[in-house]
Amino acid sequence: MIPIGTILTFIxxxxxxxxxxxxxxxxxxxGFLIWVSVLKFDIAQLQGVVSDRDSDISHLESDIAGYKLxxxxxxxxxxxxxxxxxxxARVIAGLKGQLEESKDNARWYRQKHDKAARLLQEARxxxxxxxxxxxxxEKSRLAAxxxxxxxxxxxxxxxQN
Length: 161
Hints:
Keywords: Membrane, Transmembrane, Transmembrane helix. The chain is mainly α.
């Protein structure tokens, strides 16, 4: 074995201090290099995580762009539906106007029909024509004129006075 005294003498000398200093320096450099390699490995892992997140973000951005397009399309559809609804409302208003006009026409026709029926009923009580075939009764003449003129019987077939 190496005696302890020799070791202590060597360490106490300048060469021993130099060797110990170099050994300690090498250990520190080796530790630093190990620490740097561990940091490089951690940085590589973090870069992988960052690239995965960037990939996820780009997928999300493309999804968002798709959703925005869907929203724009739906806004366009909603606008078209609103326009269609407005057109439908205008058509309904027009049809209501036509319905009211038809009701007024039906009411007018009913009044004229009732008047013609009343005149015909009154004319039935009296002889309508004289021996020559001319309408002689005033009620009959009014009924014939009314029916021919208002209700659309052709005037060329009506009897003239």
